[in-house]
Amino acid sequence: MIKELIEAGDFAEARRALGDMNPVDVAGELEKTEHADAVRVFRMLPKDTAAEVFAYLDSDAQQGIIEKIKDHEINGIVEEMFLDDAVDFIEEMPASVVKRVLANLPADKRDIINQFLKYPENSAGSIMTIEYISLKERLTVREAFDKIRGEGIDSETIYTCYVTDSERRLLGDVSVRTLLLAQPDARVSDIMNTNVVFAVTTDDREKLAGEFRKYGLLAMPVADNENRIVGIVTVDDIMTVQEEEATEDFELMAALSPSDDPYLKTSVIAMTKNRLPWLMLLMLSATFTGAIISGFEASLLALPALAAFIPMLMDTGGNAGSQSSTLIIRGMALDEVAPSDVLRVLWKELRVSALCGVALAVVNFARIFIMNRDVMLAATVSISLLLTVVLSKTVGCLLPLGAKKLKLDPAVMASPVITTIVDAGALLLFFAIAKALIGV
Amino acid sequence: MIKELIEAGDFAEARRALGDMNPVDVAGELEKTEHADAVRVFRMLPKDTAAEVFAYLDSDAQQGIIEKIKDHEINGIVEEMFLDDAVDFIEEMPASVVKRVLANLPADKRDIINQFLKYPENSAGSIMTIEYISLKERLTVREAFDKIRGEGIDSETIYTCYVTDSERRLLGDVSVRTLLLAQPDARVSDIMNTNVVFAVTTDDREKLAGEFRKYGLLAMPVADNENRIVGIVTVDDIMTVQEEEATEDFELMAALSPSDDPYLKTSVIAMTKNRLPWLMLLMLSATFTGAIISGFEASLLALPALAAFIPMLMDTGGNAGSQSSTLIIRGMALDEVAPSDVLRVLWKELRVSALCGVALAVVNFARIFIMNRDVMLAATVSISLLLTVVLSKTVGCLLPLGAKKLKLDPAVMASPVITTIVDAGALLLFFAIAKALIGV
Q1: What CATH number does the domain containing A164 carry?
Q2: Residue B239 lies in a domain
Q3: What is the tens place of the pLDDT at every residue in B3-18?
Q4: A132, A353, A440, B264: which could form a disulfide with A393 (CB 3.0–4.6 Å)?
Q5: Under an 8 A CB cutoff, do B195 and A337 touch?
Q6: Does the ipTM surpass 0.85?
Q7: Cβ B25 vs Cβ B56: under 8 Å
Q8: Which domain-ending residue is among B86, B118, B150?
Q9: What is the C-alpha to C-alpha distance for residues B309 and A71, in angstroms, rounded to an integer?
Q10: DSSP states along A324-376
């Protein structure tokens, strides 16, 4: 709609329409607009809205605007942005843009941005921001509200305030709800909660997401190694973390190198790079499975009908294994299963795989017997199938648990890897049983 | 720790320890305690804490306590719980417990719970609660704070208040932050935000999660068909929704019927029921693939070496296809890809699959040529591989898009289904090319 107004040259109406819109939606409109027009629209925005809209833009649109505006305008935007948004923005820009942006900032802002850029990827430090409200414990509720009114407009959240001593060490937290329900003369120290769930800068952001879910938090303070509070993480960012971590697992589990870029914005070359190494590795692994078939060429020549059961055995093994590995990988991601549960998991998988395996084997036996009238062939395939299902589910549960134990990402031990391993096992079982029962 | 104190009979110390703990952690301790002891500990808790702790318990522990306490105690707990928690609790209980709980409630509470139980699963109505703060537009900021102080203790969130007319129709919302920063004499109507993101009771909860993420919301009002506000959804519940929806997709994509129960708490029978139907269906489908091999038995007898390449072709096809389907399924779950993007997706997949396919084919050709010194065999396998990768990625992207278009869950069109389809295609291609190039 903004796009249409701009194209029609109706800037006055465009400005009015922008005023009524949510900054998130303004950003969405700007992303759909040509860079040159986007800059014109962007300049119509009031200064504080501009910074917020800028934070919501994707990095292409951010770069498009940055390259067209003046140095002092860049400075104005970055100064108005929350620190976490500024850091996210700078991380995505090419070196030349980063240099220009940092050169225009006052030294103290530049220093703190440089410090935040150094936190390891996926750490609590990398997603925290510094705009929080800290209160001294001696304050009364009335004084606390004065402080909140004074600083509230520049804070990412005002709803949880952190009580600190003179060294910035965390003593407790107090919510605006508690403050509102307390007497104006009460002391913060008397109403604060001292049992605060907090993180340290090096904690994994996935761990934080788990604690936000568990305790229903809106924000969490982050402390440095000396227990001083250095920032907070807010629930909106944690929702993004939760979504990104799930996406990463989906990708790893499908033999893809994870990428943060949306599908339609990822180049063909980047996509090929994310996919090809895994396909190559798994292709070469599968040649070992092929070697097993070569090794039993004599059996196949003696009884060519055996070959027709290979796809069914391989696919069922792969599916049975990936069912188990998926449940274990997801269970570990949600802290419902741990490597120490290995015996309980194994016992459960053995029973489930026995039930599934027997049911599949019986149906399979009936089908082959009806179609081929060959009891020994039906028995060979069905026993192989039962053992394949048990093997697959055992491998499928043990590999992710083992990966976690070795501090690897369990999501790598999913369908593609399991299938490759289980295929070989299924064929070895199949030919061995054929030899024993049919003598080929 | 509570468990140890209880077992040692030190109830005084246990009560003290409970007082310092987060209700979430108290619930965690109770779940680890024997039912009989859990009831003793539960009765030590102050009334309002008891209801909160009860809401955090898993349904086994809830049932254990409900079955051991008196009717008036049940009433006390359910009356103190937020409505969404009470509804979640009742939904998980067996019929006899539900009957007893509802019989003990006052008629108005029973009516509203019955009404909430009727909202469709996974709808906005099924996750909303009614404890929100509504303000009239004529109120001043000072009067609004009086209302918040009066109702705040019983509201799920006080940080966003909803401005309604006399018919409960939504006029706007106002945050406590805005109220705190406004003049005490200002009117709510002058400072409220009228551009409110809201849901209707029948909206899919996954859509709400997307909007919470997009707009960084803490709460969202839910309206009925006559535009009257009937409840709110809060961000803590949305985090759970986001996690459950991802888990559901992980499970569907691994050919599992979704289940909300944690792995270790799911019975062997329930697990078998979630897994067996899919394995059975896919096993029977894979017999068609076997039939293709039977159809080309003459080719295999003429050149038995062909059989050794079947696992590699099938696995690579399956992996290539599930890479594409995973990216498309996840992209659609995050609203980054839509069925209308089909041509852009197809064009991208064709190019990526050509690049991946050529690279894999070249490596494969070299390996076979070096090991077998047979150019025509190497060419047959490599051309089949290239075409299989292109076919797999085409099928892998089109099936989930088609499922979405038909309003089915795209996550069903993942690795297992793709593999089954692609296996057949890969083998048909392989034998056709072998016939053309080698003449077998």
Answers
A1: 3.10.580.10
A2: no
A3: 777 778 787 888 888 8
A4: A353
A5: no
A6: yes
A7: no
A8: B118
A9: 61
A10: HHHHHHHHHHTTS--GGGHHHHHHHHHHHHHHHHHHHHHHHHHHHHHHH--HH
**pLDDT: is B156 or B353 the higher one?**
B353
Query: Residue A274's domain spans which residues?
Result: 263-437
Residue with tokens 């009989």: B36
What per-residue confidence (pLDDT) applies to B13?
Answer: 83
> Looking at the structure, do residues A171 and A280 belong to the same domain, yes or no?
no
List the single residue in B316, B329, B330 with the smallest CB-CB distance to A286.
B316
DSSP string, A68-94: TS-HHHHHHHHHHS-HHHHHHHHHHS-
Q: How far apart are CA B52 and CA B197, in angstroms?
A: 29
Parallel, antiparallel or unpaired: strands B219-223 and B229-234: antiparallel
Q: Report how far Cα B361 is from the mean position of its chain's Cα atoms.
A: 39
Structural domain includes residue A416: yes
Summarised one tens digit per residue, pLDDT across range B226-284 is: 889 999 999 999 999 999 999 999 999 999 999 988 999 999 999 999 999 999 999 99
* Run of H or E residues at A179: helix A176-181
Domain end marker among B70, B85, B118: B118
Is the same domain home to B16 and B113?
A: yes
Across chain A, mean pLDDT equals 91
pLDDT, tens only, A192-234: 999 899 999 999 999 999 999 999 999 999 999 888 999 999 9
| A1, A53, A180, A257, best to mutate vs chain B, most B CBs in 10 Å | A180
Q: Does residue B246 sit within a domain?
A: no
Print burial letters for B142-179: b (CB count within 10 Å at least 16), e (below 16).
ebbbebbeeebeebbbbbbbbbbeeeeebbbbbbbbbb
User: Domain with A390 in it: what CATH number?
Assistant: 1.10.357.20
What's the predicted TM-score (pTM) here? 0.89
Q: Which residue's structure tokens are 């593609």?
A: A416
Using CA coordinates, name the residue in chain A closest to B263.
Answer: A331
Backbone φ, ψ for residue A140 (5° rounding): -85, 170
Based on the domain organization, do B297 and B345 belong to the same domain?
Answer: yes
| Average of per-residue pLDDT across A121-126 | 92
Q: Are residues A267 and A215 in the same domain?
A: no
Q: What whole-number distance in Å separates Cα of residue B198 and Cα of residue B183?
A: 27
User: How does pLDDT run across A372-395, given as a tens digit for each residue?
Assistant: 899 999 999 999 999 999 999 999
CATH number at residue A101: 1.25.60.10
Answer yes or no: do B176 and A176 touch at CB < 8 A: yes
For position B7, what pLDDT does the model report?
A: 77
Same domain, B271 and B366: yes
Chain B residues close to A427, C-beta within 8 Å? 311
Asked if the structure places residue B78 within a domain, the reply is yes
Nearest chain B alpha carbon to A158 = B177
Q: B37 falls in which pLDDT band (50, 70, 90)?
A: confident
Asked if B161 and B58 sit in the same domain, the reply is: no
Domains in chain A: how many in total?
3
Q: Is the same domain home to B276 and B416?
A: yes
Does the beta-carbon distance from A180 to B148 stay under 8 Å? yes
Please tell me the distance from the alpha carbon of residue B341 to that of residue B329, in angstroms, as a whole number: 13
CA closest to A304 among chain B residues? B297
* Pair A83, A130: CB distance under 8 Å: yes
pLDDT tens digits along B137-159:
999 999 999 999 888 777 888 89
Is 90 exceeded by the pLDDT of residue B385? yes
Strand partners of residue A233: A220
Check if the beta carbon of residue A328 is closer than 8 Å to that of residue A253.
no
Q: Which chain A residues have a beta carbon less than 8 Å from that of B312?
A: 283, 286-287, 289-290
Strands (E), A87-145: 134-135
Same domain, residue pair A214 and A68: no
List pLDDT tens digits, range A159-203: 999 999 999 999 999 999 999 999 999 999 999 999 899 999 999
Q: Which of A241, A238, A263, A240 has the alpha carbon at shortest distance from A251? A: A263
